[in-house]
Write a structure and sequence with these properties.
binds adenosine-5'-diphosphate; globular; binds magnesium ion; alpha+beta; nine-stranded mixed sheet; 337 residues; 17 strands; T-fold; single chain; four-stranded antiparallel sheet
């Protein structure tokens, strides 16, 4: 099995920081949620902000992990019981994202995630019969959140892997704000939060990884927002016949999504939403992803789609924030409103 772990700063940030006259800088790295995370903050409250953020990340992992036997998600998946209100609210949000994306994002995908076990050391190519037997367990109407509890229909299970890091980045944003941080970066694998501007007042450069190689496909200049990338190129395994199976499952088929996209980056001021959407739009594929973007009303988001046929498709709101990567050889197309 070949598993490519997210490199150090996947969807990496190019940290172009001024050396002199800069405010106090603090930096920390940790491994949580199966992801290498890096947090940087500037300003007087930077050390405390990072200490608080790291503590919160570990607490959230404790609640939201599927594999820890004392987590809330474990409890929900094993008969229910009282859980933290945070968990209930996140599940409620996940159900809303599932409804909005017509089920392309669906946390009840868990039984199929387990069946394929793509993120594990023992991936498995199931039979159609195995898939068919589990597909009826998928559907967000099978979840009943109720104040302090989340109950599932019999045989169902949830997996918050497609949303937990986005939610965590939202919480880190709140912590930075509480500590008065006006400049910083948070990279939770493909989930990036840029706080304010760089210390020199310029926007942050957020590089979008090239899914076909080790470098970058393009760079976005961003201020105070989230950029979340999902793709099939980071967590996958290659079968003996050479077929590649990646980790995002299409809830409609029960198979790893056969996307015509290599990666989806969603940019918006809500990290949880950006995370759910990036997973969902990857499942949808180019055409449906564009239709979904067009149908967004008062709460628009921006996106960068990298297609399997070598194009970068970008929403117009990013026109002035897009830097081409000359050696990446993608044709760049901007959508119009
Ligand atoms: P990453 O976790 O690598 O940042 P994503 O945010 O796209 O990537 O989440 C993918 C993870 O979400 C999978 O590893 C699995 O745990 C879960 N998942 C897989 N397919 C779906 C889906 N269609 N909807 C919701 N979650 C999914
Ligand atoms: Mg996601």
């Amino acid at each position: 099995m070949k598993k490519l772990l997210a490199p150090l700063l996947s969807a990496a940030m190019l940290l172009c920081l001024t050396a002199c006259g800069a405010p106090k800088k603090a930096e920390t790295s940790l491994f949580a949620m199966d992801t290498y995370m890096t947090l940087v903050a500037y300003g007087d409250g930077a050390d405390d902000a990072l200490t608080d953020a790291a503590r919160t990340i570990n607490e959230l992992e404790q609640l939201l992990s599927r594999t820890r036997e004392d987590s809330d998600v474990w409890r929900i998946n094993h008969g229910g019981g009282q859980v933290n209100p945070t968990t209930v609210q996140l599940v409620e949000q996940a159900i809303r994202f599932s409804d909005e994306t017509d089920g392309a994002f669906d946390i009840t995908i868990a039984p199929l995630v387990d069946l394929w076990a793509i993120n594990s050391d023992a991936p498995h190519i199931p039979s159609q019969a195995e898939i068919d037997s589990l597909l009826p367990l998928v559907g967000s109407d099978r979840i009943t959140p109720n104040g302090k509890t989340v109950t599932l229909d019999s045989g169902c299970a949830i997996d918050l892997g497609g949303i937990a890091k986005g939610y965590t980045s939202d919480r880190v944003k709140e912590i930075f704000a509480r500590h008065g941080i006006k400049s910083g970066t948070v990279s939770l694998g493909g989930n990036v939060y840029v706080c304010g501007t760089r210390p020199d007042g310029k926007p942050w450069n957020v590089a979008v990884q090239d899914p076909r190689g080790g470098g970058y496909a393009c760079t976005l200049t961003l201020t105070d927002t989230f950029a979340v990338t999902s793709g099939g190129y980071q967590r996958y395994f290659t079968a003996e016949d050479g077929t590649i199976y990646q980790h995002i499952i299409d809830p409609a088929t029960g198979y790893p999504a056969q996307s015509d996209l290599l990666s989806v980056t969603v940019v918006c001021p809500d990290g949880t939403r950006a995370d759910a959407y990036s997973t969902a739009l990857y499942v949808m594929g180019e055409e449906a992803a564009i239709r979904f973007w067009e149908s967004q009303g008062s709460d628009p988001f921006e996106m960068v789609l990298i297609t399997a046929d070598g194009r970068i498709v970008c929403t117009p709101g990013l026109t002035d924030h897009f830097i081409r990567q000359e050696d990446a050889s993608y044709e760049v197309q901007f959508l119009s409103r």
